[in-house]
Specification:
The structure holds two protein chains of two kinds. Chain A is about 30% helix and about 20% strand. Chain A contains 15 helices and 19 strands. In chain A, the strands form five sheets. In chain A, strands 1, 8, 9, 10, 11, 12, 13, 16 and 17 form a nine-stranded mixed beta sheet that branches. The longest helix of chain B has about 35 residues. Classes of the chains: A alpha+beta, B mainly alpha.
Chain lengths: ~525, ~325
């Protein structure tokens, strides 16, 4: 009996061992985790990329970031304020629901509802009109020639599914109890979620009913976050995972000399910067009472000049960063070269602080993620040291991105005094930066400045931003963008630091399209 | 009768120590002597850190990023100003280890003392009062014994930080770590003390004290405690090592001391990132210091246990 059962087990094992000949399981590890599956919770590139495997927008982007038709087959603008989207027919959600105009209208309401982190994606006053089941008109209050390029990561959800599962409202990043939509996903994309343990493990399976032609050959994808740099690299070197992001810069050489693994590098479009709370009359975390030192431009300038960006580049980033004077990458704005960073000048910074009434400096809290950007924790620590030398005592609060974002984003009440953030404009256009990061936050009925965590505000800049949106003449448009950036630059509204470099570590048996926005998209991955 | 029995001359303390069994056991064991020396040197280094360390690694103004990742002085590329090299922020590792040791030691000793205080109190009460009180206290202890100490510490740390939302971590982390360790380690003390108390409470001197009319707390503290405290000293010594390891583990996991005020565990955690890139010194020296100190303290604890065990004499 025993022998027979052993034989059976052996036979079963043999079957199991032979069937995976065609099975291609990709194991993917990122430094940050995937908490909520709700596509409106967190507007962050890595999360958007994860969910972009499952959900789709009306438009999508190709390997070169060019806009392509997504759930909308084609679109036209019969008049500047009216866009007509022709929806793809015969598309089904993974749960079996048909995709129709109702889903688009539902998603438009949901993405603009309270708790969504994507409110700037769809103008608050835009009207969605159902022409027929597969045609939607969008009526705007002012022209927006780049509407379609803002919608690649506005993912469409199924109305039926969301309403049936009590998930018609978006899940805010600060939510303490998960909603159905944050634990489950029901999209139209090339993959579906087989299982999801928030922050632990997510399993993707190909969506057999996808309308497109798959360019991948995967049968399963297992995503796990590995926060520790050394552990992540060790997992790649040992073959435990097939692809990691990012490769810690200190380990790039080691990975490249590893045999069957390699590092794919390239410039990234993300700008890393520091921001200040310029809204509150008294900072949340500071020993200065009764006033907000960051409202004084001299203090902001002093902070800027106290930071030695070249040393951060050579020491923390090991040369793999491009110091930036602007809040946008040079690849995305033609006149970037006209701006240069003010010189590193600690003595000048001390003098500015003394002039502003802080000869002995002051204390301030700083928020920083430690698993989001390349070496984000060490960059913040370096900033703490540099500011200490001009008399500013910074109490650093570096934490994983889930806690960090829950604290500093709109849903958490912008609870920060001084912070580090990175931004890639979702449209790959300056308007997004001017609107989302540099726009005033003072109008509660507008989504402008949604990710302007410190609330920097200049009305003239806002006016220019609105003109930029409607302008179609490239030369005029660029001139206005330049003028707007100049305002923020002159007022030291932010401290841009640098653009980091992409560094993906892959097994050599993997072929993957490396997109410059640092999105790892599964349907462009093939495995030998 | 006055000169019949000359009063025994008090023996000077030093002589008493020199002629004791403990001292003899100490002198005849070279391992113990080395362990004591290592403990002494490291403890002195930690206590005197502000005076003997070349720089203050907790002061960001004294740390220069340009000096980051310099190898130890004797390796090519090393700088004699940094004997053990520097970490990723340009901190002198030698200074960082001295200061880190100081933090580790303070939290370790603080945590163990708190654990002992809780454990001894509860053990005494459980053993002396008995009955339902005993049952409740000891069942709680039993339940806690089923969890690893590090898990309890993580739990306490998580709960306290959730309660203290908004207070900068740097200000609370010290107390939270001591509390976590204290709450994680009290069970051993409670069980030991309870066992000895059960034996002692039926002895004649306790009965006598009761007959005289002394109150229960006085009997517990003045009469029983001095007779049951012996074994606790051994646990105390061995637990200091454990507590320091626990602190290092918590810091390594990122819930302990922040990178701006590194303990040994934080330093090891920082160094861990650089294991693959060849910057071995960041993890090696703090790791070695931690191992040496914990080993030395444990060896001392072993010696103390043997010396206090009458059966081994």
């Amino acid at each position: 009996m025993k022998i027979r059962s052993m034989l059976l087990a052996a036979a079963a094992a043999a079957v199991l061992a032979t069937t995976p000949l065609s099975a291609k399981t990709l194991r993917y590890a990122n430094q940050g985790d995937l908490k909520s599956l709700d596509p409106y919770t967190l507007n962050e590139t890595t999360t958007n990329a994860h969910l972009g495997n499952v959900y789709e927008g009306l438009t999508r982007r190709g390997k070169d970031l060019a806009i392509m038709p997504g759930l909308a087959e084609r679109w036209e603008t019969p008049e500047p304020t009216r866009w007509r989207f022709h929806l793809r027919k015969g598309v089904k959600f993974a749960g079996g629901e048909d995709f129709t105009a109702d889903d688009v209208i539902f998603s438009a309401d949901r993405v603009r509802a309270q708790g969504s982190n994507f409110q700037t994606r769809v103008p608050k006053d835009a009207k969605f009109v159902k022409v027929d089941d597969h045609t939607v008109d969008v009526i705007l209050s002012s022209p927006n020639p780049i509407l379609h390029s803002q919608w690649d990561t506005w993912y469409i959800m199924s109305k039926k599914w969301a309403e049936a599962n009590n998930a018609a409202a978006p899940t805010p990043a600060s939510a303490t109890t998960p909603s159905h939509a944050s634990l489950n996903a029901n999209g139209t994309g090339p993959f579906r979620i087989e299982s999801h343990q928030p922050g632990v493990k997510t399993v993707f399976k190909p969506n057999a009913g996808w309308w497109g032609k798959p360019e991948h050959n995967l049968t399963e994808v297992i995503f796990t976050p590995i926060a520790s740099d050394a552990t992540r690299v060790a997992a790649l070197l040992s073959g435990e995972v097939d692809i990691i992001e990012p490769v810690p810069i200190q380990d790039i050489q080691r990975v490249n000399s590893g045999g069957n693994v390699q590092v794919l590098t390239g410039p990234e479009l993300r700008t890393i910067f520091l921001g200040f709370d310029q809204v509150r009359d008294e900072l949340l975390e500071s020993n200065v009472k009764g006033k907000n030192p960051f409202k004084d431009q001299r203090v902001r300038e002093a902070f800027y000049k106290a930071i030695d960006i070249e040393t951060i580049k050579t020491r923390v980033m090991r040369g793999l960063s491009t110091p930036s004077a602007l809040m946008i990458a040079p690849e995305l704005f033609a006149f970037s070269k006209d701006f240069t960073r003010p010189k590193f000048d600690p003595d000048g910074a001390k003098k500015l602080l003394a002039d502003a009434g802080y000869p002995n400096g002051f204390e301030v809290g700083m928020d920083c993620p430690n698993d989001r950007y390349v070496n984000d924790g060490p960059i913040c620590q370096a900033v703490v040291g540099m500011l200490a030398r001009v008399g500013i005592k910074v109490n650093l609060n570096a934490q994983p991105k889930a806690q960090y974002f829950a604290k500093v984003l709109k849903a958490g009440g912008y609870k920060t005094s001084f912070y580090l953030l990175g931004w890639t404009p979702g449209t790959f256009d300056s308007h997004n930066v001017l609107n989302d990061i540099l726009g005033c936050r003072d109008n509660p009925n507008s989504s402008r400045g949604e990710s302007n965590l410190g609330g920097y505000c200049n009305k003239k800049l806002d006016e220019l931003t609105d003109k930029v949106l409607g302008e179609t003449d490239t030369a005029k448009r660029n001139a206005m963008i330049k003028e707007a950036f100049q305002i923020a630059y002159d007022e030291y509204g932010y401290i841009p630091l640098h653009q980091q470099a992409l560094a993906w570590g892959t097994s050599k048996s993997i072929k993957v399209a490396q997109r410059a926005d640092n999105s790892i998209l599964l349907h462009w991955i093939t495995k030998d | 009768m006055t000169d019949a029995a000359p009063a025994a001359k008090p023996v000077p303390l030093l002589v008493r120590i020199r002629e004791s069994d403990m001292w003899h056991g100490f002198r005849s064991s070279p391992t113990t002597i080395v362990a004591a020396l290592v403990t002494l040197v490291l403890t002195l280094g930690a206590v005197l850190a502000p005076w003997i360390a070349p720089t203050n690694p907790f002061d960001p103004a004294q740390v220069f990023l340009m000096n980051a990742n310099i190898p130890p002085a004797w390796v090519q590329g090393g700088d004699p100003a940094f004997i053990f090299g520097t970490d990723d922020q340009g901190r002198d590792l030698y200074s960082a280890i001295l200061y880190g040791m100081r933090v580790s030691l303070m939290i370790g000793v603080g945590g163990v003392l708190l654990a002992a205080a809780i454990g001894i109190t509860l053990g005494l009460v459980a053993g002396y009062v008995g009955g339902r009180t005993d049952a409740i206290i000891m069942r709680i202890a039993d339940v806690q014994l089923t969890f690893p100490a590090i898990l309890i510490a993580l739990l306490v740390d998580g709960v306290v930080h959730a309660l203290l939302k908004g207070v900068p971590r740097e200000q609370t982390v010290f107390g939270v770590l001591i509390l976590s360790i204290g709450l994680a380690f009290w069970v051993q003390y409670a069980r030991t003390i309870r066992g000895s108390t059960l034996v002692e409470k039926n002895k004649d001197y306790v009965q006598a004290a009761r007959l005289v009319g002394l109150s229960t707390p006085v009997i517990m503290v003045r009469h029983i405690l001095p007779n049951v405290i012996g074994p606790v000293l051994v646990i105390l010594t061995i637990n200091i090592g454990l507590a320091i390891i626990t602190e290092a583990t918590l810091s390594f996991l990122g819930v302990g001391l922040p990178p701006t005020q590194p303990s040994l565990g934080t330093l090891i955690s920082i160094g861990n990132k650089y294991l693959f890139s060849g910057d071995w010194w960041i993890v090696a020296f703090p790791g070695f210091t931690l191992a040496a100190f914990v080993l030395a303290v444990n060896l001392l604890g072993d010696w103390l246990r043997d010396a206090l065990n009458p059966r081994l004499r």
